[in-house]
Structure formats: structure tokens, C-alpha cells
Amino acid sequence: MDNIFSYLRMLLRPWKVVTFLLGMASFVIGALYFVVPTWDVGVSIWMSILCYALAPLGVSLAVTGYREQRGLRRGLHFLGSAAIIYFVGSGSYEVYHLIVWDQHPPTYWENVFYSIPVAIIAGILWRYDGTALELIQEIRTAIEASR
Known about the structure:
mainly alpha; 0% strand; globular
């Protein structure tokens, strides 16, 4: 991801927009039908947008850090990745509740254990820079190669 324009172009692939909208809709529906006192429509939309916009960047920083030689640059990439993924999966949840509810969310740890893995998985998925058909073909190839 050379610059902001290539990153935005990567995010705006139709299959990514559709999966983002479906994911956000599932969180909004969950907020409406499950009884969780700190889960509402607002936090569902806020965290979904941040996840879509930032999770692929967080995963990309981790990949870049993995490829770097040992040293400060590698550590900075991993630190940046961890900070972004934490913010997407939990920090944004805290900020929302401090602003809207004027309190730290009592369900902090439950959110951490659920939302951070979701952010990582979404980042891995949305980091892929190809069509949905190419992604499916690559997954099939990888599965067949592992047999």
C-alpha cells in the first residue's frame, strides 16, 4: 500500500464494500436484538467503520514488520500494528462509552476477547488486493496444496 489513494482504491473494491455493509448490518441487528447493556447501534456503526478503514492497515504493518530485519523498524511496525488493532477492537469501544455514556464500559474484557480477533480477521480479509473470485481461487489452491 504505497499511499493513501492506493489504500482507498483497495478498500473500495465492490466485494469489500458489500462484506463491510453485511458485517455492519449484523452488528446493528445484534445491538437491536441481544440484551447487552453496552452494545448499541451507535457503537456498532462506529466500530464497524473504524474496522473497515483501519484493520487492513494494522495487518499490513504486522506483515511488513515480520518481513523486516531485526531492529527498531521491525519493532515500530509491530507496535503500530498492535496500536491500530487495539484501537479498532477495543480503544474505540472505550472512547465511545466515555463520550456517550460518560463511563468506562463494564463489559471491557468481554469486548476485548471478541472484538480484537474480529478486527484481525477482518484486516486479513480486507487486506487482500484482488477480486472476490481471485480470493476464492487462491483459497482453493491453498487448500488443495495442503492435502
